Amino acid sequence: MKKKIGMLILGIAAIGILGGCTEADTVSQNLSKSADSFEVQRKVVFFNGITDRDLLVIEGLCALGNGDTDLRMTVTCKVGEDEYKKHYLGLSDNVSFFAEQLDAKKEDPFHYKVIIRPESIVPDIDLQTSN
Fold first, then answer.
1. What is the DSSP secondary structure assignment for residue 66, as one 8-state letter?
2. Is-above-0.90 flag for pTM?
């Protein structure tokens, strides 16, 4: 009985959380997940705020670093089938960046995306047997 009540409370909490999301929130989350899955063309520009000069411009199927610090920014881009490049740039009081999505992407505001990478669930095991 306690298990059923616990599941009911968990279900109500989940509905409350999902019900609180606006259409813009859902679309924004879906676009971010698509970009992190290398499905969105982006242009990322790092610039010097004092000299107004671009230091680095990166275009392509790029994902911004999710675990970056305030002083470091990473951009990972897919450059081929199973080929990626990662770029690092230090941020400071005069170096900043902006990222632009180059193409529109159709996203369903009523569909929430959950992307599971099999390699994060199933460990990579090397098996060696005797001859």
1. S
2. no
User: Is 75:59 a contact under the CB 8 Å cutoff?
Assistant: no
**Residue 44: Cβ within 10 Å count:** 20
Query: Quick check: is 122 in a domain?
Result: no
Tell me, yes or no, whether 51 lies in a domain. yes
Flag whether 77 is in a domain. Answer: yes
The DSSP call for residue 125 is: -
- CA distances 129 to 54, 80, 125, 126, Å, are 55, 34, 13, 10
Helix H or strand E segment including 82: none
Running along the chain, 131 residues long, what does each successive block of 10 average in pLDDT?
Answer: 59 54 79 85 88 88 83 89 89 84 73 61 69 67
In a domain, 128, yes or no: no
First to last CA, the chain: 56
pLDDT of residue 91: 85
CA distances for 69 relative to 7, 46, 66, 116, 119, angstroms:
38, 16, 9, 25, 26
